[in-house]
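From the pipeline queue, job 12 of 40. The input is one protein chain; the requested action is below.

Action: predict structure.
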Amino acid sequence: MNSFDVDILNLWYGDNHVLHDVSLGIPARRVTALIGPSGCGKSTFLKSLNRMLDLVEGVRIEGSVLFDGQDIYAPGVDVTTLRKNVGMVFQKANAFPMSIYDNIAYGPRIHGVRKRGELDELVERSLRDAALWDEVKDRLTKSALGLSGGQQQRLCIARALAVGPQVLLLDESTSALDPISTEKIEELVSRLKRDYTVVMVTHNMQQALRVSDYAAFFLLGDLVEFAPTERLFNSPGDRRTADYVSGRFG
């Protein structure tokens, strides 16, 4: 079963044709890594999965992106509901300048959760799911900006989980972190796939091998190859993929 079925997706920034006829199915409750050199279109593709690019002027999209069988670009789609179901964590941690508790409660409150007991339960569960609860449970009223970079990134994951998504999109979410924090995020991602579909952009080939079940290699806006990660790395079907994963690319 797939969370997304993408068919002949083309995307332009103005006159710049960024994605070319991209088609793939993203399996549910698995980790899919998007790999490729800088500027190849992988982050653009990631943001197309929850219509984050609606906020960018001059973007034009053709093709279909089905999420649970519904085309997310069809007229009348509720984008707020889409982004609730398809959460996103960015490269740089963007904790809100408020308490740890209020960071997590922010999304549920927007979606109508008002009872303190229900919010308390959501905050604790989300922080536990993000492997952060034990580190912050005694300072929930303190500013989130006092957390370390790695903790802030896990806080952002917890904040995304608090609204009950089905999918989590990670855009190079460990690239600015130290090795210990990176390891914690990778361990977290491996656990999250039991309940969520995870799609992650990474430049780290070893990270893709460690964490992902499937990998998609992008090059110059083309999806060159999509396969189970071990097969793509060990028996790639395209010479360009082989050159990239072996470090011979370019």
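Job complete. The chain has a mean pLDDT of 93.
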